[in-house]
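Homework help board

Subject: predicted structure for assignment chain

Our instructor gave us this sequence and asked us to write out the predicted structure in token form, then describe one feature. I got the tokens but I'm not sure how to describe them. Can anyone check?
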Amino acid sequence: MVDMTDTATAAAALAGVAGLLADRTRATVCLALMDGRAWTAAELAGAAGVARSTATEHLNLLVAGGLLIEVRQGRHRYVRLSDDAAELVERLSAAAPPGSPPPVRSLTTAHRQRALAAARTCYDHLAGTLGVAVTDAMTARGLLSWDRGLSLTGDGEHWFTALVGAWPPATRRPLVRSCLDWTERRPHLGGATGAALCAHAVEAGWVVRSRRSRALRVTDAGRAALREQLGLELPPAG
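My token output:
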């Protein structure tokens, strides 16, 4: 027999989270934070196009709801997405109906959209065409298995250890997780392993972060490394 009390409690919690993301300003804030960095209220107010006081009210709700984590440094307050919230935002973005894209009103906007679709961070792991291509290449080389959900194979564990040098510290976060890419509409590698791989790509100079968005630019060294490590041939930068 279904426990209606438990069901009602779960329904209230679900509705609460859905209500937090149903607001356009709060949704914009969460999307901005998908670059994995901690932002101030003033920065997020600019990203959402609202007053700082309005942004602060929304941030307080998101922190109270567990979607954002507050980080204090001296007198400054920063916020970042929780790991669970980052996955939720990416999955909801991918689940949204494609519809018609907003009209491109400038060359800068067109370049930004192409850059995000080509390579970006999904919170703290690789996404876009690059993220999906890396995941496909790892699968083709037998480093990832999809037989019973996404997992690293024995060869994958050896490859990852040789590349990164150490496993991520044990947390509640799964080591490997499939994350549906919102532009490619196909899965890319997430979880702690995906985050460590992305961090290595940045530290090794395979990719360079954009200052204004979560787009990544693959370097010549990155193309060579991905070719050597995974047999992945990326088109030259356009």
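Reply (TA_rk): Your tokens look well-formed. For the description, you could write something like this. The longest helix spans residues 4-22. That's the kind of observation they're looking for.
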